[in-house]
Amino acid sequence: xxxxxxxxxxxxxxxxxxxxxxxxxxxxxxxxxxxxxxxxxxxxxxxxxxxxxxxxxxxxxxxxxxxxxxxxxxxxxxxxxxxxxxxxxxxxxxxxxxxxxxxxxxxxxxxxxxxxxxxxxxxxxxxxxxxxxxxxxxxxxxxxxxxxxxxxxxxxxxxxxxxxxxxxxxxxxxxxxxxxxxxxxxxxxxxxxxxxxxxxxxxxxxxxxxxxxxxxxxxxxxxxxxxxxxxxxxxxxxxxxxxxxxxxxxxxxxxxxxxxxxxxxxxxxxxxxxxxxxxxxxxxxxxxxxxxxxxxxxxxxxxxxxxxxxxxxxxxxxxxxxxxxxx
Length: 327
Ligand SMILES: [Zn+2]
Hints:
By secondary structure, the chain is an alpha/beta fold. Helix content is 28%, strand content 12%.
């Protein structure tokens, strides 16, 4: 399962893993179910006519009867806040993940949806708090599946570095070290000071890992590019409910496609007829050498392919030309 949290639509990956199969809205009883794809892609992003990338066939909200229920797009209006991410996580992301039940996760953790990103511009995501970057990473980690976390967009260098440092500390921490109350292997706190290095001035004025979340928090050197913050989330309850209804149906369809295909595979597995192996005309066994020391009345025997070679006690051998017998 590929989960894309970048503010831009993950068009390339969605296209790369788009299944050529068109899945029916329901599978009639007795009809052979289509094989589900190996990869499900889900991109949560801002979508509008003026925002990159341009509209594609799959960048909008999929219809509940979409022929491509494994290529999912969750478009958002401007300034999606952490509370919007938290709501959609519970109502859309979790049901899809549960239905697809992936073996592996690839998380694309773009941070250009953070408030004030100079390229994202239409984001109002936070790093901390419910629904924030760290919260989402904790949720994915909690799934307990092998996970590859990738960077993504993020054009405020300081905030992107902060967010990824905090997210990385969550990913590499474990419950044991948390309980042991040791510093190594624990998630970083936003108050953590940024170490001195050449890029430190970009972390002014706090010089910590805390990501400012409103315009007034910024001591921006490029105020024109960072005008956004404290802007209202334009994702209304009605629009989110509409999205949730579509994803609810899509999750049911995904589960039913996987279940139908699984039943078919199980049926094939247990009804398979094993072809009878051809019976050899003669028993073919490797030569057996009887190493017992020959006694005066007991010649050594070499049994080979049903024929016997008799060797007398005096060392003379002769072929036994009698018909082969089972050796
Ligand atoms: Zn982006």
